[in-house]
Write a structure and sequence with these properties.
By secondary structure, this protein is α/β, with parallel strands linked by helices. It is 33% helix and 15% strand.
Length: 437
């Protein structure tokens, strides 16, 4: 029997089989080389690297279905005909490695700051409200709702045409669909009040996608199972949301939190102070009551033993990894090959988030390949001349230098003056929340 037998069983969503249960979660990047915001070579190489590592699907985060009214910042546009060629190349660089290319369809509703300030367009929320910047935002007119439904169907059709095998609708984290799904949506028309009415918008968007892409084209919907801030809804309400989506979406991805609520940032993306799989319980609560859709969980997932237990125990059907596949894109392959001890574990230090905002790029504190995937891809592994390399010091830097030099074919001598390797990091050995470090 294979060690992680359940984790590497295929799963079928719609008409497509995915090679295992490890999905690369949606994530946005800032690698746009021109004003049209087309994915460039660095952008493509970043996502292709995840596909090479064995993930069943690789998701591109935050592509705009309605750029005019829905963008929080400049990002990929699915309503731009000039994007077809680079999007096709992006999907093919993922799918040629056996992964399914997925793209996240986004609309930020009341928080569409770029559409307002950058493009000068009027923006709307589910109901009259005040957004994250303190702006008074009017209720979305019904004619705009119908227009957006069509745009989501058109965006998915464009994605399918460009080679993407699945789309994800972001209906969590306080974005537009979440604004409609939430308990404060007491509109007096068919788009608010009851749970059925609150879910009508997102279900109508799914229906339009299925109409244009085929009934069996896979659609994932990401929700916040609970918002976890004062005044936000709890898991019981999140379960009611999921019930409304059951059978409409092929996969329901249960996350938590809200983008504009800073107090829950380190819960949505768990910090090192939280347990591994801290948010699995929310997906498990949804899984208990859902009858038709598959369920995915996300957040603080790295250990293959934990991933296997989640699938085997029925807490979720799919595990989504985000930062872990930056720390080690080869996590799926290493686990499947029985090399789980070689997996480089994400230490949840938030260096990736910091670089995203301060340098407009992605960096990982423990994986120097991130952000330089193209260079590494074409780097000559074996040296033209084998050398004898002396490394002075057996700290973290010295040990990694020794490993890298050895992997590149050199003879390595590592010298450490003490009787133990590890350097300054040894003082962290007994700190429970730094176990991955």
């Amino acid at each position: 029997m294979k060690k992680f037998e359940q984790l590497f069983l295929p799963v079928v969503l719609g008409n497509r089989q995915f090679r295992n249960r490890i999905f690369a979660a949606p994530i946005g990047l800032e690698y746009y080389p021109d004003e049209r915001l087309h994915p460039g070579d660095e952008f493509i190489a970043y996502f292709e690297r995840k596909a090479q590592g064995g993930a069943a699907t690789v998701s591109i985060g935050s592509a705009m279905a309605d750029n005019a009214r829905g963008a929080i910042g400049p990002t990929i546009r699915l309503d731009d005909p000039t994007a077809l060629s680079p999007l096709y190349r992006l999907s093919q660089c993922i799918s040629r490695h056996g992964a399914v290319a997925d793209i996240e369809l986004q609309h930020c509703g009341a928080n569409s700051y770029h559409s307002k300030f950058g493009l000068g367009n009027e923006i709307f929320g589910a109901f009259d409200s005040v957004n994250g910047l303190g702006m008074e935002i009017p209720q979305m007119p019904e004619e705009v709702i119908f227009e957006i439904i069509k745009k989501f169907g058109d965006a998915a059709q464009t994605a399918k045409h460009c080679g993407f095998g699945m789309v994800t609708i972001h209906a969590g984290h306080g974005w537009m669909f979440n604004q409609f799904l939430g308990p404060h949506n007491n509109r007096r028309d068919q788009w608010g009040g009851s749970m059925e009415n609150r879910a009508r918008f997102v279900n109508a968007a799914i229906a339009d996608i299925k109409k244009k892409c085929g009934r069996d084209f896979p659609v994932c919907v990401r929700i916040s199972g609970a918002e976890l801030f004062e005044g936000g809804y709890d898991i019981d309400y999140g379960v009611e949301i999921a019930k409304q989506l059951d059978g409409h979406a092929d996969l329901i991805n249960v996350s938590v939190g809200a983008h504009e609520e800073t107090s829950v940032f380190t819960i949505t993306s768990p910090s090192m102070f939280l347990d591994d799989g801290a948010n699995v319980k929310y997906a498990a609560a949804v899984k208990k009551v859902i009858r038709h859709s598959k369920i995915a969980t996300v957040g603080a997932l790295a250990e293959p033993e934990l991933l296997e237990e989640i699938i085997a125990s029925g807490k979720a059907d799919v595990v989504m990894l985000c930062r872990q596949l930056m720390a080690d894109p080869d996590t799926p392959i290493k686990a499947q090959m029985g090399q789980e001890k070689k997996i480089r574990k994400c230490i949840r230090c938030f260096e990736c988030f910091s670089a995203h905002f301060t340098k407009l790029t992605s960096i990982c504190a423990i994986n120097p390949e991130i952000g330089f995937e193209r260079e590494v891809k074409y780097n000559q592994v074996l040296p033209q001349k084998k050398k004898k390399v002396l490394i002075a010091g057996g700290g973290i830097g010295g040990m990694q230098a020794a490993l890298t030099a050895y992997e590149h074919g050199h003879e390595v001598i590592l010298c450490e003056k003490s009787n133990e390797l590890g350097g300054a990091l040894r003082c962290e050995k007994k700190v429970p929340f730094k176990q991955n470090m």
